């Protein structure tokens, strides 16, 4: 029996307690939380009940290592206990603002995990997950669903779409559209180099003969590559015919060579896009370069005469 008084948390006060007659109605003097304050005893090795000898560490059975499927089931069970869906979990992990539009404050562990994943330093990257989502048939709507015709849409905001494949393709389309518009705004600025060096009577830049020379085509090409790289890649991809292989030998085009078709196409297409965006853009300048470039690459005197005639007609318009 303990001969010292205990405080409210079970600590001995150091004052001896006078012996008294045991009272069955009094509270026990054992501390409320004995596993917090009791002196730890020396652990004893378990005894094998069959042999009567202490068990050793080597004879203990260890739990088998969890597989990837076991870990997945454990996480799904945890979400189920919290009454969370997979969408709830992903939204809470990656959201940057709350419902009131205020910035979300993340814990240190939360921020570190998101940073590793979005930064591409984790084992599985966002690109792998997007690839899996696009291949999963669950993300594609049925033909009778409303979103079936919304693949690659640019009219409905991608974050308002429900199916994964529809939302991803719509996001790609809308992001590319926004970047193409930005490139056109950049290339039509007065300091991009596409405007003429002359000045019109109204004070607007215009083309003069000093802007045309042996390096004009290459200069314009470099400007487009610098300010419109995505536009350049898309146009080149569309106008480049796929190579054909017959009998293990790659066929070489002799009619409408790819280099000629591609060069003429990107000059013409990009000039139209630029002219539509900027009324002061050098649309006629692009057209002149197109036909000059055609005359340099065209084969046969008939094509050369046609290109020179078209060039003369454009110069006459100026």
Notes on the protein architecture:
Helix 8 (229-239) packs across helix 9 (258-277) and helix 10 runs antiparallel to helix 11. Helices cover 46% and strands 5% of the residues. Among the domains are: 124-187, no CATH class; 190-242 and 255-317, no CATH class. The chain has eleven helices and six strands. A two-stranded antiparallel sheet has the order 1-2. A two-stranded antiparallel ribbon has the order 3-4. With 318 residues, it is mostly helical.
Number of strands: 6
Strand order of the largest sheet: 1-2
Task: Return the string of H and E elements.
Answer: EEHHHHHHEEHHEEHHH
* Poorly predicted regions: 7-11, 24-42, 297-306, 312-318
Tell me, what's the shape?
Answer: elongated
Indicate the structural class.
Answer: mainly alpha
Arithmetic mean pLDDT: 74
Could you describe the largest sheet, including whether it forms a barrel? 2 strands, antiparallel
Q: Kindly estimate the percentage of residues that lie in beta strands according to DSSP.
A: 5-15%
- In terms of quaternary structure, the protein is single chain
Rounded to the nearest angstrom, the distance between the terminal CA atoms is 115 Å
Classify the helix fraction into a percent range: 40-55%
* Total of DSSP H or I helical runs spanning 4+ residues: 11
Task: Calculate Rg over CA atoms.
Answer: 38 Å
């Amino acid at each position: 029996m303990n001969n010292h008084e205990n405080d409210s948390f079970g600590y001995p006060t150091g004052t001896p307690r006078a012996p008294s007659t045991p009272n069955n109605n009094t509270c026990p003097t054992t501390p409320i939380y004995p596993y917090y304050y009791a002196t730890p005893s020396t652990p004893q090795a378990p005894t094998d009940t069959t042999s009567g000898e202490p068990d050793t560490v080597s004879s203990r059975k260890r739990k088998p290592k969890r597989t990837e499927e076991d870990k997945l089931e454990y996480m799904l069970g945890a979400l189920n206990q919290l009454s969370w869906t997979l969408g709830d979990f992903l939204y809470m992990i990656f959201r940057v603002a709350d419902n009131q539009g205020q910035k979300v404050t993340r814990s240190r562990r939360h921020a570190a995990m998101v940073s590793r994943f979005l930064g591409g330093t984790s084992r599985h990257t966002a690109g792998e997950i997007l690839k899996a989502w696009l291949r999963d048939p669950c993300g594609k709507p049925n033909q009778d669903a409303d979103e079936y015709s919304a693949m690659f849409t640019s009219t409905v905001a991608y974050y308002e779409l429900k199916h994964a494949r529809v939302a991803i393709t719509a996001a790609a389309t809308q992001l590319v559209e926004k970047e193409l518009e930005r490139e056109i705004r950049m290339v039509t600025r007065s300091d991009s180099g596409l405007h003429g060096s002359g000045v019109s009577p109204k004070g607007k830049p215009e083309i003069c003969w000093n802007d045309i020379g042996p390096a004009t085509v290459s200069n314009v090409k470099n400007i487009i590559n610098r300010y419109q790289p995505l536009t350049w890649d898309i146009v080149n991809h569309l106008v480049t015919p796929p190579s054909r292989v017959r009998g293990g030998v790659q066929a070489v085009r002799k009619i409408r060579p790819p280099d000629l078709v591609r060069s003429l196409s990107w000059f013409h297409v990009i000039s139209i896009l630029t002219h539509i965006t900027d009324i002061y853009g050098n649309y006629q300048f692009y057209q002149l370069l197109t036909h000059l470039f055609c005359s340099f690459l065209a084969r046969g005197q008939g094509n050369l005469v046609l290109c020179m005639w078209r060039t003369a007609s454009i110069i006459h318009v100026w």
